[in-house]
Write a structure and sequence with these properties.
The protein has helices at residues 46-51, 120-124, 195-213, 268-271, 275-300, 307-325, 333-345, 352-360, 367-375, 379-382, 385-404, 407-410, 416-437, 442-451, 453-458, and strands spanning 7-15, 18-29, 35-40, 55-63, 67-78, 88-98, 109-117, 129-134, 139-144, 150-153, 158-167, 180-194, 219-225, 230-234, 237-240, 243-247. By secondary structure, the chain is an alpha+beta fold. It has 3 domains: 7-98, no CATH class; 109-272, no CATH class; 288-328 and 365-458, no CATH class.
C-alpha cells in the first residue's frame, strides 16, 4: 500500500473487552503498509501480561484527527514489563480501520471497497477534459464533462466499478484554472462480505494491472463502507461512513511506478469491448494456476532479489503452469499401473522402498518436454528452431545446475548477461500464456507482441 507520507497519530488505546483501561500510544503506518503501535503502559496487569500470550485479535483506539480506530491481528514485537514503573512496548498491527471501533469478536463486513493504483490513469486513457483554442483570437475554452462510470460484474458476487473523480475551481474569479482527473476502482457487493474477500479480490485485480501495465503497481487510498455503519449528513438523512483501510499489501515497490503506454502490454482501450469477460477469466485463472501466477509475480515485485532466485522461480513457475493446465503423462494410467505392479513384483525386497519412491513420479514427463509444450503455441515469436532448442536446453541445464550444483553442468549453465536474457524470454512466455488465458486470440497476441516495446526488448537475441 502506497502512502505519500507516513501516517502518525497519537491517541489512547484499549482492549474492546476492557474499555475502561485506556493507555497512551502512537500509531505509525509507513509507506508500504507496515503498521506499528507504540504504547506507554500495558493493557492488562503486569502479572497477566507476563503469563498471558503476546497477541491480541483486536485493539481499539481514539486518535488525533481521525477519531475512533480499530487495530486487528496484533502481536508484541517488544514487550516491556516494568513491575510498577513505566513500560514502553511495541505492537505489530495487521490491519487498521480508521473511523470506527469494532466490538470484541464483531465481524468486519463491507459492501463497498474503493481504491486506486499507480499508473491507473494512464492505463485507462480516458479524459473528460476538452480544450478548444483559437490562437488568432487569443481565446481558449476548457470544458470538462465527467466520464460515465464503467461497471463489470464478477462471478464471485462482486462488481467492479471504474469511477472518474475530478477537482475543479470553486470560484468564478481566478487567475489560474486547474482541473485534475483521477481514476478510482470500487468493488461492490449486494451482500455484506468479510474484509478478507475484498482484499483477496483487490490483490488479484492489482496483479492483473501489473501484468497489463508490465510493471509493479501498488494500491493506495483505500476506503470501505458498510450500509449498517452510517453518519448523519442532515436532519434525518444518513450516509454510509467512509472507513479508511490500511494494511501491508502486495505487490508493492518503494518508488511509485510511471509507465508510458508504449511499454504496456495492453491498455483498457485494447480490451474495452469484452473487458468484463477478461476480468472474470483472470479471476477464474487463480482457481487453476494460482501457484504459477504467484511464482511469476514474485519475480516482478522484487521478492526475488538475486538473478539466480528469479530464474528458479520462473523455471518452477513454467513447470507448475504446465502441470496445472495439462494432464499429459508418459503413458496412460492403466498401462503405467500395470508396469509399476510388475516391476514391484520382481524387485528384491531390500530395494522395494527405493523403487516405490521412483515409481511414484515415474509417469511424469520431463521438464524439457513441459517446456516444449509451453513454447509450442508461441514459437514464431521466440525464434528459429535452433534458437528455441537452445532456449529449452539452457533453461533445463541452468535449472539443474542451480538446483544440484553438479560440477559437470557448471560451464554449460547460463550466468550473468546470458542468464538475464534467459529470464526475460521466460517472462515473455509467461505473459503470452496469460494473454491466452484471458481470451486473447492468436491475432490479438500477435498485435501485443508487435506493439509492445517491452516485449520486443525482452525477445532481443541472447548473447552468444
Amino acid at each position: 500500500m502506497r502512502l505519500e507520507e507516513d501516517y502518525i497519530r497519537a491517541g489512547f488505546f484499549w482492549l474492546p473487552d476492557n474499555p475502561d483501561k485506556k493507555i497512551p500510544g502512537i500509531l505509525t503506518i509507513k509507506n508500504g503498509g507496515e503498521i506499528e503501535l507504540e504504547i506507554v503502559g500495558l493493557f492488562r496487569s503486569d502479572k497477566e501480561e507476563l503469563l498471558g500470550n503476546n497477541s491480541y485479535d483486536r485493539i481499539a483506539g481514539d486518535i488525533e484527527k481521525d477519531g475512533l480506530v480499530t487495530l486487528d491481528k496484533c502481536f508484541y514485537t517488544k514487550k516491556s514489563i516494568a513491575f510498577g514503573g513505566i513500560s514502553k512496548s511495541k505492537i505489530h498491527v495487521g490491519y487498521v480501520l480508521s473511523g470506527v471501533a469494532y466490538e470484541p469478536g464483531e465481524d468486519v463486513l463491507f459492501d463497498r471497497f474503493s481504491f486506486s493504483t499507480d499508473c491507473l490513469n494512464e492505463w485507462m486513457s480516458v479524459t473528460g477534459i476538452k480544450i478548444d483554442q483559437d490562437f488568432d483570437q487569443g481565446t481558449a475554452c476548457i470544458e470538462y464533462t465527467r466520464p460515465a462510470p464503467i461497471c463489470y460484474s464478477f462471478k464471485n458476487g462482486m462488481s467492479l466499478e471504474i469511477n472518474f473523480e475530478a477537482t475543479i475551481p470553486g470560484s468564478s474569479w481566478t487567475e489560474e484554472v486547474k482541473i485534475s482527473q483521477r481514476v478510482r476502482l470500487t468493488l461492490r457487493s449486494a451482500a455484506l462480505k468479510p474484509l478478507s474477500e475484498f482484499i483477496a479480490t483487490t490483490h488479484k485485480i492489482t496483479n492483473f494491472l501489473c501484468f497489463a501495465i508490465d510493471t509493479v503497481v501498488s494500491i493506495k487510498d483505500v476506503t470501505a463502507t458498510c450500509k449498517e455503519i452510517t453518519f448523519e449528513i442532515s436532519d434525518g438523512m444518513h450516509h454510509p461512513k467512509p472507513i479508511k483501510v490500511f494494511y501491508r499489501s502486495i505487490p508493492f515497490s518503494d518508488k511509485e511506478s510511471a509507465q508510458n503506454f508504449h511499454l504496456m502490454l495492453f491498455t483498457h482501450k485494447t480490451i474495452e469491448e469484452n473487458a468484463g469477460e477478461i476480468f472474470n477469466k483472470w479471476l477464474e485463472a487463480y482457481e487453476a494456476i494460482a501457484p504459477a501466477m504467484s511464482l511469476y509475480f514474485s519475480t516482478k515485485t522484487g521478492a526475488q532479489r538475486y538473478l539466480d532466485g528469479k530464474f528458479l522461480a520462473l523455471a518452477q513457475g513454467l513447470e507448475t503452469y504446465h502441470r496445472r493446465s495439462s494432464h499429459e503423462m508418459l503413458m496412460d494410467e492403466a498401462t503405467y499401473s500395470e508396469l509399476a505392479a510388475r516391476l514391484m513384483e520382481n524387485c528384491p525386497p531390500e530395494h522395494a522402498d527405493w523403487l516405490q519412491g521412483k515409481l511414484r513420479y515415474g509417469n511424469e514427463i520431463s521438464l524439457s518436454t513441459r517446456l516444449k509444450r509451453v513454447v509450442e503455441p508461441f514459437k514464431k515469436h521466440l525464434g528459429t528452431k535452433t534458437e528455441i532448442k537452445r532456449l529449452i536446453r539452457d533453461i533445463v541445464t541452468t535449472r539443474n545446475y542451480l538446483t544440484h550444483y553438479s560440477e559437470e553442468l557448471k560451464d554449460v549453465s547460463c550466468k550473468g548477461p546470458e542468464l538475464l536474457a534467459l529470464c526475460s524470454k521466460m517472462e515473455v512466455i509467461f505473459q503470452l500464456h496469460f494473454l491466452q488465458v484471458i481470451g486473447f486470440t492468436e491475432t490479438e497476441v500477435d498485435q501485443v507482441v508487435n506493439n509492445s516495446f517491452s516485449i520486443k526488448g525482452k525477445l532481443a537475441p541472447q548473447p552468444s
